[in-house]
Amino acid sequence: MSQKVLVTSGNKIAVASLSRPRFYQMAASLLNSFRYAWAGIVYAFQTQRNFRIHTAIGLSAIALSGLLKLPPVEVAVIVLTIGVVMGLELLNTALEAVVDLTVGKEYHDLARIAKDCAAGAVLLSAIAAVGVAMALLVPPLVYPLVGILW
Fold it and tell me: Do the beta carbons of residue 78 and residue 61 sit within 8 Å?
């Protein structure tokens, strides 16, 4: 695919054609953009154990929200929290791929720092998600049991 751009030189304006390699091309349509995004999610699910774990826990939390008949706002908070954790996991996967592409099989301290920081971001969001689950899911589970015991 080529793209036409205006090139200026002094008082002259010319149209030049730029050819970009395939991996630099923009998606031909919005539908293709969504296909590429979905392909990234599928790749992460197929190759990243932690992404599969986050998916399973997230779906469980949503199902439990429904069973407990949580208010819509609380369900929205849970869904947003799941989205943040999974989004950061996707960014972590992307960053690791870019770092690996850049440094290859060589060890580099900055590569380790980048990967560790990205993984740390996922860990912090997962810890926050546990806090959200404790605040929103545990009370409706525990209160009925406490009432039975007292």
Answer: yes
